[in-house]
Design a protein that fits this description.
alpha+beta; GMP Synthetase, Chain A, domain 3; three-stranded mixed β-sheet
């Protein structure tokens, strides 16, 4: 029984030493992490998110704006009451994840 108690600390020390050596070897092999690639957001998701964002924005909520997305490029069309309203629509849509570019074909409604 005495040999078994002396053997146990030795086994434990060897196991700890092996673990420390493996950790040091792994740490030496690690390379600086690269920036994660940007996830591609599906066009349907971008369109839906843009429409939700416009409806959630009180000044833009009732405007007849059509949103179409192709390969991350969002095309906006429709009429807005002023250039400022159109600029706001563009800013709201630009905040949506996955939007690469916005093509603004919004028309300012002429009074009359």
């Amino acid at each position: 029984m005495m040999k078994q108690t002396r053997l146990m600390p030795t086994v434990l020390a060897v196991a700890l030493l092996a673990g420390a050596t493996m950790s040091a070897a792994f740490a030496a092999q690690q390379v600086e992490p690269q920036a994660a690639p940007t996830a591609v957001v599906p066009d349907r998701t971008i369109t839906s998110a843009a429409q939700v964002a416009l409806h959630a924005d009180a000044p833009s909520a009732g405007l007849p704006v059509k949103v179409v997305t192709k390969q991350g490029i969002v095309m906006l069309s429709g009429t807005v009451p002023s250039a400022a309203a159109g600029d706001r629509v563009v800013r709201v849509v630009a905040s949506v994840a996955g939007v690469k570019e916005i093509r603004n074909d919004l028309k300012v409604q002429v009074a009359g």
